[in-house]
Design a protein that fits this description.
- The protein is mostly helical.
- Helices cover 82% and strands 0% of the residues.
- The protein starts with a helix and ends in a 14-residue tail after the last helix.
- The model has no long low-confidence stretch (mean pLDDT 83).
């Protein structure tokens, strides 16, 4: 019973902390409305027009199928990119030679724009859903790799030596000493990776005409339906925010609950 009450209290504090984020969203909506007043609906539909178009899209029988198609591609690419990048970065962080070897490679991979990877993936794999997944992995894995690498490289080695002196095995030291420090580098990298996954997925779908939200954007662009374009873009941003705050932030709060002990009551990050 106490554990349930503790979980409910933690969830309540987490939801209450979201008011600051909502304030930022409302400020953005106000700036969006101001831009609409200046340029008109053909250039920039108002938030009201966009939300009305979203309502029409939600009434379509294939709406959730379109969302699930893009979501599977984006989240699959994100999971694989985060997994590969994190594991490779942690391993490279323990080796100075691997660190010096991989840093230029990561810089090269990050320097290639996602549109370049999309074009190459279209040539290699054709116009299919795999193009979006492969592009997300290639474009996003270096971000997670860099975060994990920096986290391991900047760990407190004195704590690790102390744990080793007390007979703690390597995996135990990794789990209890290194990873809590690495997580503070990983979660910002994963947030960037998640946002990039949605952007790259929609871009790949648009160029490859492989359905999903990107395919619907291509159709709306051909019809010059600006309100529908804004609606699909808003839906994409909402899904990216849901991935961040509904998945990654919850995971961070669960894994880093020890940080709350060092904060004054009511203070949130």
């Amino acid at each position: 019973m106490n554990r349930i009450l503790e979980s409910l209290g933690w969830m309540g504090r987490y939801l209450w902390a979201g008011w600051a984020g909502l304030s930022g969203i409302f400020c953005f909506l106000a700036a969006w409305q101001a831009g609409h007043e200046i340029y008109g609906s053909f250039i920039l539909p108002s938030p009201g027009e966009t939300f009305a178009a979203m309502g029409l899209l939600a009434a379509r029988p294939d709406f959730f199928a379109i969302l699930s198609q893009s979501a599977v591609r984006a989240l699959t690419g994100f999971a694989i990119a985060a997994g590969i990048g994190t594991v490779a970065g942690v391993l490279a962080g323990y080796s100075f030679a691997a660190m010096r070897l991989m840093k230029p490679v990561v810089t090269v991979l990050l320097g290639v724009p996602p549109i370049g990877w999309i074009v190459l993936a279209l040539i290699w794999f054709g116009s299919s859903g795999g193009t979006a997944v492969i592009t997300v992995i290639i474009a996003s894995a270096p971000v997670s790799f860099a975060g994990a690498l920096e986290g391991v490289a900047k760990r407190d080695r004195q704590l690790e030596v102390m744990a080793q002196a007390f007979g703690a095995p390597w995996f135990y030291r990794l789990r209890t000493v290194t990873m809590p420090h690495v997580l503070s580098y990983l979660f910002p990298a994963w947030t960037t990776t998640a946002g990039s996954a949605w952007k790259v997925t929609v871009m790949a779908e648009l160029l490859s005409n492989s359905g999903g939200i990107g395919g619907e954007l291509a159709t709306a662009r051909a019809l010059f339906d600006i309100a529908q374009v804004s609606a699909w873009l808003t839906i994409t941003v909402a899904l990216a925010l849901l991935t961040d705050y509904g998945l990654l932030h919850l995971l961070r709060e669960a894994l880093e609950r020890w940080r709350a002990a060092g904060l004054p009551w009511g203070v949130k990050r």
